[in-house]
Automatic annotation (TrEMBL):
SUPFAM superfamilies: Thioredoxin-like. Keywords: Signal. InterPro entries: AhpC/TSA, PRX-like1, Thioredoxin-like_sf, Thioredoxin_domain. This is Thioredoxin family protein. It comes from the Bacteria. Residues 1-24 form the signal peptide. It holds the Pfam family AhpC-TSA. Residues 30-183 form the Thioredoxin domain.
Length: 208
């Protein structure tokens, strides 16, 4: 009887450890070299958009952003420039808004549409209403960037982190991390700096 009880306890412990590992992996999100899972999110123009719509591209620049965050606002023009520069070369920008809009009304879908129109965004601005995409990526801030390279029908993570090294002053930027990563990929070379620290506002998660 004791032997069966001990085996039962061991099984419970093993199950709990497996569950905790699974949760830890989900919280960590993607790592360099991982293939992302497909997703579909609503764009400000009403269309549903996801990686599957970009199979003709060489890759993607996925940026988690928001309306209310001063850091995201400071980067809007630079994100526009990234899309202008690289979409024609096969690396278009996709922006995703992951915040709980009840934390900041400015992050509501209606306000997203207004912001995209006012700033004339040249790239999709998608709502991650369930926050499942942000959790899958392991995004923690806005802005938080993931550069993906297409390999067959999959998109592989090649860079994670900040857009550049100066959120406050675009004229004072010394390192343009996203540009460096995409330029390397366009030349068929490995990305040298694969991860940097994302600087921005913490994502406002919904109460589970």
């Amino acid at each position: 009887m004791r032997r069966h009880h001990k085996a039962y306890l061991v099984a419970i412990v093993v199950s709990l450890l497996a569950t905790m590992t699974s949760y830890a992996q989900q919280a960590r999100g993607y790592s360099i070299g991982d293939a992302i899972a497909s997703f579909s999110l609503k764009n400000v123009d009403g269309r549903t958009i996801g990686p599957g719509d970009y199979q003709g591209q060489k890759g993607l620049i996925v940026i988690f952003s928001s309306n209310h965050c001063p850091f995201s606002k400071a980067y809007e023009d630079r994100v526009q420039e990234l899309n202008r520069k690289y979409s024609a070369q096969g690396y278009p920008v996709i922006a995703i808004m992951p915040n709980d809009p009840t934390a900041y009304e400015e992050d509501s879908f209606d306000q997203m549409k207004i912001r995209a129109s006012e700033k004339n965004f040249s790239y999709p601005y998608l709502l991650d209403d369930s926050q499942s995409v942000a959790r899958a990526f392991g995004a923690s801030r806005t802005p938080h960037v993931f550069v993906l390279k297409r390999s067959g029908d999959r998109f592989i993570v090649e860079y994670i982190g900040a857009i550049d090294d100066n959120p406050q002053d675009a004229s004072g930027v010394q390192r343009r991390y996203v540009e460096e990563a995409v330029n390397s990929l366009l030349l068929g070379r490995p990305v040298v700096v694969t991860t940097t620290k994302a600087i921005g506002c913490a994502i406002k998660w919904k109460n589970m």
